[in-house]
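pls design
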């Protein structure tokens, strides 16, 4: 599953990028959402990669995020049941979990090149692959 974290705010963003952020449930900076690995998700992520960072989230980090920040759509929230449903490849809605997690800014900050440079040259934006797990740990 992909974890997408919005890094930059709404000022000077194009309307189509704003709409894509709405579809991804990323309303403001430091919000994270989780999406399945498919073509449609990847196209939306690529559209907003100049304003966000993304990567493949591990199961341990996913369970930690659900324990600390998870909330139910309706009724009670059962953490273990939600993790089991998500590990089967189903969506967040089927697991009765809101697909927006409010994270705090990372402890000791982002990478040194800043929030306007891609991750490949030392910045924050773009694809991190498995390194997204380290950033999520810093933000919990």
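designed seq:
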């Amino acid at each position: 599953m992909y974890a997408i974290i919005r890094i930059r705010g709404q000022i000077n963003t194009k309307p189509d990028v704003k709409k894509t952020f709405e579809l991804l449930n990323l309303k403001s900076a430091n919000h994270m959402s989780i999406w399945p690995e498919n073509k449609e998700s990847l196209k939306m992520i690529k559209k907003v990669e100049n304003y966000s960072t993304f990567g493949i989230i591990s199961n341990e980090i996913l369970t930690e995020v659900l324990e600390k920040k998870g909330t139910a759509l309706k009724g009670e929230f059962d953490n273990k049941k939600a993790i089991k449903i998500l590990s089967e490849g189903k969506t967040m809605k089927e697991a009765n979990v809101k697909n927006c997690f409010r994270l705090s800014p990372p402890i000791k900050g982002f990478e040194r090149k800043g929030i306007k440079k891609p991750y490949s040259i030392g910045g924050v934006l773009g694809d991190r692959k498995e390194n997204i797990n380290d950033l999520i740990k810093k933000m919990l």
